[in-house]
Amino acid sequence: MQRRFTLKALTAAVALAGISAIPSYAAEDTIKVGVLHSLSGTMAISETVLKDTVLMAIDEINAKGGVMGKKLEPVVVDPASNWPLFAEKTKQLLTQDKVAVIFGCWTSVSRKSVLPVVEELNGLLFYPVQYEGEELSKNVFYTGAAPNQQAIPAVDYLLSKDGGSVKRFVLLGTDYVYPRTTNKILRAYLHSKGVKDSDIDEKYTPFGHSDYQTIVADIKKFSEGGKTAVVSTINGDSNVPFYKELGNAGLKAKDVPVVAFSVGEEELRGVDTKPLVGHLAAWNYFMSLKNPTNSEFIKKWSAYAKAHNIAGHKDKPLTNDPMEATYIGINMWKQAVEKAKSTDVDKVIAAMAGQTFKAPSGFVAEMDPKNHHLHKPVFIGEIRADGQFNVVWKTPGPVKAMPWSPYIEGNDKKPDEPEKK
Does domain 148-288+380-413 have CATH number 3.90.1150.10? Predict the structure, then answer.
């Protein structure tokens, strides 16, 4: 928004000086793209970099001629980790700014806030973060993981001999829809594997929670009953005090491993990772993956972060899973627009079916032709002392998403594609 204001003011100043106005794109010569990420509040630690990833991709696309000969014009808004504000900003983007597409949201509560707005106004949202499933919308493309592409494989690994043959589980999350629904799925899945309720301890903390001393002490006590692991769905800046307390309490990975679904390279930036070596995260991408596509992705991001003086990243550029999912999403949207020869939402939705993109994970990501989710590989990584991850387990190839978990009763009757409205 600031860039647009500055350009407008500069053009006016030049005109007042009696000089020909500097070249600028007329509205019909650009395609507006909405960027809906929290740049302040508890989720800014995770979301700010996704805003920058969208801007990097837009710069890259524009440098290659744009989309259908038109430049992309980003419209950046800050819903400030305020869930109702996500809905208000979405309405603004669609009705006032007239964006063709929105890239945004992290938490499921923010996505749930946005969902009725994009459906009512027939907008288009690309959602780049792992989530609890149990949702399909004609107006949303989910480029993060469904539970069978993250949560279920992580628990399978913990139950296996390689993962320590875990017998007891602490399901620890932030108190909102994603952790609660994911843990409902995981509890049912653990039951199917013979794990009793007495061997499952479920705990929740509010957004922004910072005192984990009692919770970590409880985890240590619970672990006395048998080999225990923590499955963490803590989101946002609460991860920093949680991991610090693990270090303070001397809770090492060999004793009680923690596998996280919302902690990647970016969240570990502000933490002393040496005491956390060996703890786990499950994602569809890690920065440490060795392949030419990832090397190029890291190189592009590093150059962009340095050129734009991005806090933290100009000196220590990091990439992570939601950044990759964001990058895949905007490039697939570009391909779909060009296939449809239009930014019309219904035409783009139809053209998204079966889109592919060579992803930094090293695999070709494919948009399922029916369910609006990507086929993605799954990786489990151990935290290293430098805040990166060593991959200790991976699927042989991409896994098809199952938005409706078979472990929740009644899901066998759910549709396998979004309802056409």
Answer: no
